[in-house]
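Forum: Protein Structure Q&A
Topic: Joint prediction for protein chains with partners

I've read a bunch of threads here and the consensus seems to be that you should model interacting components together rather than docking separate models afterwards. I'd like to see that in practice. Below is the full input, 583 residues plus whatever partners are listed. Could one of the regulars post the assembled result?
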Amino acid sequence: MTSSEISSLTVARVRQGLAGREFSAVELAQEALRFAEAENPKTNAYLHFSPERALAAARRVDEKLGRGEDAGVLAGVPVAVKDVILTEGVLTTCGSKLLANYVAPYDATAIISLEAAGGVILGKTNCDEFAMGSSTENSAFGPVRNPVAPDRVPGGSSGGSAAVTAQGTAVLALGSDTGGSIRQPASFCGVVGVTPTYGRVSRYGLTAFASSLDHIGPFARNVRDAALLLQVIAGRDPNDATSAFAPIPDYTAALDGEVRGLKVGLPREYFQGLASETGDRIAKGVETLKRLGCEVREISLPHTEYAIGCYYIICTAEASSNLARYDGVRYTMRSPRSETLSDMYRNTRGEGFGAECKRRIMLGTYVLSAGYYDAYYLKAQKVRTLIARDFSQAFEQVDAIVTPVSPFPAFKLGEKLDDPLEMYLSDIYTITGDLAGIPCMSVPCGRTSAGLPVGMQILANHFNEAGMFRLAGAFEAAGGFEG
Amino acid sequence: MKLTEQEVRYVAALANLNLSDEEVAKMCEDLGEVLTHMEKLNALDTAGVEPMAQVLSEAGETATLAEDIDRPGIGNEAALANAPLSGAGFFKVPKVIERS
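Posted by a regular:
Agreed with the consensus. Here's the joint model:
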């Protein structure tokens, strides 16, 4: 296989190659690993590879195929996994110095499902420390470079997973999204990224950041492959009490559906002041949807301006609680220069956490501290209700909502590191979907004149992933990805 | 709004987080700026609005309760495998009680 054949593989192509005995799953895994290892220095997107696990999974696929059995919908497909998702026997660092040597003792449920469907995990991808950031510059193991423009960030926090998908060093990738960490890097790297309904995919084995907002979701180079991966990882899991019982439709069957007459809402609050190349590309994308027969209308999500404040109160409060466990006792590194237990906690955390995690721990501790709970956390939870209500009212009028993913395309490495508030404000279009818990995704929507990818966001009502994929698939088929 | 050094050190102590003097100074600025933005929420009347503590609750009240079945844990050895210091089947830590 040539490099360009490997880097443009799809799930369907892998299936065809295995069925026609062009290659075995083991041969494909070996070639994919060789290619990924050779290409990785260009981006630093993989933190570590898992060749033993990959080859064992590939061997199981070959054995099943040899016996004439069904080897699963993702049989032999090379997949990368964000390093906040636990993989038994493989390093799981969360992009943190604290967990630099942490080998996970069990598998996340999504990992078990992925391998049961024949997926072959090549390695773990770089990310912002504990998934906190919008550029992957907060990794303790160095930033990731955007494969489309190496002087720019890939977005974050799942920047590594977006980059390997764009670079072609994996066919699919798993990421996690709390405030846009799948969709924003997908948009910056020009790939498909999906945040499912909250609870659609089990969070068991996903390192907790903000538990009421965390999701696992897929990256792919086309809509069908993203839908296939979600199909595999979706479902109720007794190990995650918040995972949903709702039935799972056949997502790929939805891709062939009609979008004529589908009502698409454009929230006016998201388009105000969007006089930019990004705005132009999205406007062109909306024209494509109209050409497909969608009924496009303006809608309003009136509480949008409160979303950033609401989100950063809730996510930092939950993060400060979740990150309390990294204390130098059970699984993190430990500061060597401590006489007492209390010193050991403080020194370990002070030396181990990077600047962004410290900032969020401090904000979260502040808003939860005595006398402030009602003014911040409780207030934010009430505002969250209003934001979620905006969406449920909107979905009484429209079938889907379309917005930009980010106000701007990929920025230069280092460009926004010094201004945390500005970095937080750039999450405006993605955090609302997480607050409401609805499914949302980023699809490529052309490029700027400098060649930087722009992402269009599609949001749908709770558990309407099928409708979201249908619109995304029609947009892709109409050439919308190319703009 | 800018936090005082004293406020920052108080919160850092609550969070068991050692901060350098430079970090404390920067936190005064950064936290103040973000908290000011968060205070925008006060402009909104939320009287009578229920707080949203979780996203979905379509399941019945007892559906999410696990069966009371004994399941094996990961075991002592695996639990200690990532510990920075362990011995005799326990996590080891520096002394907890100081003698005067």
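Chain B touches chain A through 52 residues (CB under 8 Å).
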